[in-house]
Amino acid sequence: MPLFTKVIASIGPASSDATTIFNMVKLGVSGFRINFSHGSPDDWVKYVDAVRNAENRVGRPIALIGDLQGPSIRIGKVEQPIVLRKGDSARIVFGSEARGGDEKVVPMPVKKFFDFVEDGDILVMDDGRTRLRVADVQADYVEIVALTDSVITSRKAVTIYNKEIDLPPLSESDINNIKFAIAHSFDYIGLSYVRTENDVDILRDYLRRFGKEDIGIIAKIETKSAINNLDKIVEKADAILVARGDLGMNFGLEEIHSLQTRIVEKALEHRKPVIVATQLLESMVEKPVPTRAEVVDVSTAVEMGVDALMLTGETAVGKYPLEAVSWLIKIVNFVEKTTLRNEFANISRRSRTNIDELRLLFAKGVLELTEDMNAKLVVFSLYGNTAKRIASLRPSIPVYVGSSNKSVMRKLAILWGIQPLYVDSNNYDEGLQKIIQKAIELGYIGYGDLVVATYGLKEPRQRIEIQRIVS
Ligand SMILES: Nc1ncnc2c1ncn2[C@@H]1O[C@H](COP(=O)(O)OP(=O)(O)O)[C@@H](O)[C@H]1O
Ligand SMILES: C=C(OP(=O)(O)O)C(=O)O
Ligand SMILES: [K+]
Ligand SMILES: [Mg+2]
Q1: Which atom of ligand 1 is nearest to the CA of 278?
Q2: Are strands 188-191 and 157-160 parallel, antiparallel or unpaired?
Q3: Which ligand 2 atom is the nearest neighbour of the CA of 244?
Q4: In the structure, what pLDDT confidence band is assigned to residue 246 with cuts at 50, 70 and 90?
Q5: Contact 453/407 with Cβ under 8 angstroms?
Q6: How many other C-beta atoms lie within 10 A of the C-beta of residue 383?
Q7: Per-residue pLDDT tens for 113-131?
Q8: 376 CA distance to ligand 2 centroid (A)?
Q9: pLDDT, tens digit, 9 for 90 and up, residues 158-216
Q10: Terminus-to-terminus CA distance in the chain, angstroms?
Q11: Where is the Pyruvate kinase C-terminal domain (predicted)?
């Protein structure tokens, strides 16, 4: 299981059974994403139960991420995939369902689409595999011509190339899905198609209004506006996700690497957790072994010092979900072992103008003391802040974090290098001892080890204790 860079898996028909989810947790998955654009609440409840059962059986906190549809246009349900050859024409009609198959009718439940789209627009779908040209626009249907061989399946997002349809950041169904996520103790909510920092504020307001402000907001960076407003969005969000699927539809594919680099750097600069997602091991949707290009792509993302990598179609609908997880972990482990430890530290500890919190410097001090002594680091963290600061410094040693606060431990599960443990104690000193005991039980700490145990005090002061494990 990777010690530092974490793995998040999207759940879908290919991975929704309890055994697969349990096996993914055993392999080392630290978080699961449920995409609210697909399936139904009845499906999602089963996914949640399977994740929480696996979490209990393995005894390791797991993060649950609920991914909102956001201001995206998605087609409705088609019973049969619609197969188009390049040059074929088809019709997009207002409605939420269609037979599909030979009936080349694509249902479009978003009324505004028909007012917004214009002759000559290029529609991009399915992470860019489908490209259609708008040939004729009518009030409640649009004629299109396929520019590529395409297979159109249910609930696919539609990008109108170089245009951003002005839909509200959260639809009625998004708000229902926020309530669902709260009712089922999700740890994070993914905000798709973020355009400005105001979109993050709007979601934060809902969470506050519904009394669950501690749910983390993951801003998914995938639109041109988001890139233009990147700094402010990163400041407001709790975590950042490089959403390469839609990013590659709103920008040229050739721009992906530099966009990813820029987004990751910005997140590191603001010390926000950052996740890279989509098509990491895309060929494993069909094959049991990744391509060389995919291995290099994953390695590059790990070397950028991201907190986590997220599998999407590979585990949601792929034929080899478990192999995709084990290949991802194998590549992560190799790169972590071979990349000089201080490489990651250099990425994230370069002194940046915005480092002015004393606490961050304390955390840096404790961490570097522990690293230099080749000791083990144990942190008691009621709210997770000390642990988050240490993770943002890209520690070269595992950081064992304990707290009685389940949801804090689950949120930390997808951060770099954090090994979260539950301990039922609300006081720091007793808590530190319990974490050390539990870490010994789990084999993380052995006799003879030097342990640095720490927690952040109210006033900016780090409490540090060093002990040798002798009995
Ligand atoms: N729960 C699901 N049920 C059916 N199909 C799904 C599900 N989750 C994902 N998929 C399929 O896998 C594709 C990639 O997954 P993902 O990236 O999570 O979705 P999207 O890109 O549509 O937001 C989706 O477009 C969809 O075709
Ligand atoms: C993660 C992404 O979002 P979604 O899968 O919802 O399109 C993406 O676009 O890469
Ligand atoms: K998206
Ligand atoms: Mg996607």
Answers
A1: 17
A2: unpaired
A3: 10
A4: very high
A5: no
A6: 12
A7: 999 999 999 999 999 999 9
A8: 37
A9: 999 999 999 999 999 999 999 999 999 999 999 999 999 999 999 999 999 999 999 99
A10: 28
A11: 364-459
* d(CA 90, ligand 1 centre) in Å: 23
Amino acid at 458: K
The candidate with the shortest Cα–Cα distance to 14, out of 53, 43, 36, is 43
**What is d(CA 336, CA 3) in angstroms, rounded to the nearest whole number?**
9
Task: Tell whether ligand 2 has an atom less than 6 A from the beta carbon of residue 408.
Answer: no
pLDDT digits (tens, 9 = 90+) for 422-453: 999 888 888 999 999 999 998 999 999 999 99
Pocket of ligand 1 (CB under 6 A): 10, 12-13, 35, 37-39, 153, 156-157, 245, 312-313, 316-317
Q: DSSP code of 305?
A: T
The ipTM assigned to this model is 0.96
159 lines ligand 2 (CB under 6 A): no
Q: Contact, 126 vs 82, CB < 8 A? A: no
* Per-residue H/E/C for 419-435: EEEECCCCCHHHHHHHH
pTM, rounded to two decimals: 0.91
* DSSP bridge partners of 9: 32, 311
| Residue 78, strand partner residues | 98
Looking up tokens 């192999």 gives 323
Structure tokens at 33: 């994403």
Structure tokens at 151: 């297979």
For each of the domains in the chain, give its residue range(s) and CATH number, in order of start. Answer: 6-70+169-340 (3.20.20.60), 73-160 (2.40.33.10), 352-468 (3.40.1380.20)
Residue nearest to atom 17 of ligand 1 (CA): 312
Main-chain phi, psi angles of 455, to 5 degrees: -155, 160
What ligand has the least distance to the C-alpha of 38? 1
**String of b and e for 436-461 (b: at least 16 CB within 10 Å)?**
bebbeeeebbeeebebbbbbbeeeee
Ligand 2 pocket residue status of 277, Cβ below 6 Å: yes
Give yes or no for residue 314 CB within 6 A of ligand 2. Answer: no
Say whether pLDDT at 344 is over 80: no
Question: By 3-state DSSP, what share of the chain in percent is helix, strand and coil, each rounded to 5?
Answer: 40, 25, 35
Is the model more confident about 460 or about 152?
Answer: 152
Residue 221 has pLDDT above 80, yes or no: yes
Q: Could you tell me the distance, in angstroms and rounded to a whole number, from the CA of residue 322 to the centre of ligand 1?
A: 17
- What pLDDT was estimated at residue 461? 67
